[in-house]
Amino acid sequence: MNNQQSTTQKFIVLKVADYLLALPIVDVLKVVNCPASAYREFKNMGLVQLGRHTIRVLDLQGQFSSGDVSQVSTNPDFLIITRSLEGELWGIGVQETPNLMDLPLENMQSLPKFESQSGFLELVSHSAVVSNSEVTNTIFLLDIRRLLDVINNSHRQSLSNK
After folding, report:
1. How far apart are CA 84 and CA 154, in angstroms?
2. Mind listing the pLDDT tens digit for each residue in 65-93?
3. From CA 144, how far away is CA 141, in angstroms rounded?
4. Which residue from 61, 123, 52 is spatially nearest to 93, judged by alpha carbons?
5. How far apart are alpha carbons 97 and 110 in whole angstroms?
């Protein structure tokens, strides 16, 4: 009998476009329903008002289709709230309910770096293949630090072009 224990870590798994993405639970402050009324007022700015907090909402769907992380064009059903290193609150808008999953760390494989990496590959660091009796899925580990760096660099470029 095999006595080796598999080391797992908890992740929030979300679907964006045709991809399954995972965020380590330690990077997630909260997952909330996103009421349309909280989003409607600041929709054009990519912001949502939740309680006393104004949170910038990221559109990963746009990143994967056009290469730009931008404001969300439709009201997301859920927001995954995270925080930057500077303490700013950010929300990742998703249409489908995110799931909490334990993923075996030995299934995580580092993705190779390419010289001109951009778009989707710029935002993920690892992948894991997860199988159950019916389906095999590849889940990509979203690197929240890289994501926020891409956002901030894009914002700085757009300001310098004006």
Report:
1. 16
2. 554 444 445 667 889 999 888 888 999 88
3. 9
4. 61
5. 27
